Amino acid sequence: VYRGVAGLRGKLAGSWTWEAALLWSAARDIEYEAGPSRKSLLIAAINQTDPAKAFNPFTRTFAVQNGTLVVTGDYKNPTSITSTFTSAFIRNGITKLGSGDFHASGDVLPLWGGNKIGGAFGGEFRLEGYDDYRPPYAGLNPPGSGLDPASNDFLGFSPNSDTHGMRHVAALYAETVIPVVGREFKLPLVESLELSASARYESYTDFGDTTKPKYGINWRPTPWIMVRGSYNEGFHAPNLAQLFTGTLIRTVTGSTDTYRSAVTGLITDGPSNRRSVASGNPNLAPETSVGKSAGFVIDVPHVKGLTVSVDYWEIRQKSLIASGGGIPDDTAALLAATQAALAAGQNINAIDLGSGTSSYKGDPSVVRLAVTQADKDAFAAYNARQPNPGNQRAVVGGIDILRTSYFNKSQQFVNGFDFGVNYRLPAFAIGRFTVDTNWTYLNDFHAYSAAGAPRTDYRNGNSANVCGATPVWRGSTTLTWRWKQWGAGLGHYYTGHYTDTGATTTAATYAALGAPGYIQPIFTNGAYSYRYLVHDSHSYNLFVSY
To answer: What is the pTM of this model?
Structure first.
């Protein structure tokens, strides 16, 4: 790893100061793999007709005696034979980051009552590079080799193409703080009033331009209470790995198409081996967000050193970048889209869910084939047997691949409340004590994977998912003590219970353990899944300093 930074700073006229810096960093990783086997060469060694050159995969020797095949002894292939199909390769990974930035700040204009408008501006230029080189036969088989160019030849390694990505980013920003009321200028019920505004412009070679603002207000009606609020918009571009990581193909075993299997009864729609394709996605859109907050801070009257704060906050994100994982199931999304079309008056057998097209209404992690006439006939027969329209299903094609690459979710929303209490006790002969406690209450946390898809709740305790993946309460409390050069503190940290969606077990294990409370059976899409419940956690730390 190499990294270098150089900077300058100084003063301009009046209160203005400036600083600028240049950065260059590069990292290279070299991975040497010695001794893996190449499949094509191993097959050739097994098929050798010359006994002196043939590979024996059984570690035994055999002979036919009296018409029966018998083992005649142990056998170890000599190096002269194993060396014909083993090899070595080197994989290189390189990342680069270069940037130059500048910043200046100071007073812009004087205001009434001794107040001054403050301002700042700056800019940045950044270069990002990412390369992952995989040698021939280890990453993919080279064209003209006679082997499948979409696969590789080294056993134990999945096929994966090279990854190369680079982009340039330029940014400019400006901000200002306007103290409308304060210092020597007061108004009734306005002890102070401060407005702030900022904006950031960014230009990406791969995403174009964007400008996002932020606004804030701080108002003190009296010296002991402050009301504050803010509004901001955000922009986050995918990183180079999310965009350009090469294709990695694997096989997922035991994957069932729960939407089609109930209709067709085909073996291919039941538990089957399916292709899983993981890769970067050059068509990713950047994430955007809108954040809002409002709250107040009270310096409690007649109790010196005691401060109480309450804030509400929310963040709404769109085109959120996510990565498909595990075995995706889009049954719920397809059923929701079907019912929406039926409610709009469409005939069940005429509903188009976009199977095999970019307009597919299901989970983006599932890629389906185009609908065939056999599919239409099977779904029409199934729907004719359903007296309840709520059980009918619109036709889709079979699963082609399960995509575990990056994709953009439709949107995600989270909001909650922050509570804080800080009490700096009066000084005692033995020193000064401070108590600080901060808590967060998660009110709502949900997402939609695609337009029209069902809502996914992440907050524990939501009606749609009583076993959410995110706790409702988090908090910390610290007690600190200072006396001369000495200091000490005791901290307590709390996390509420939640379900670990990545830790699952089977119905048989759940029953064998006696249906314990730390395993949660969750009924979704007509089947149960079993996940582990993480109970409330408490942790403590103690420190002494001098």
So the answer is: 0.72
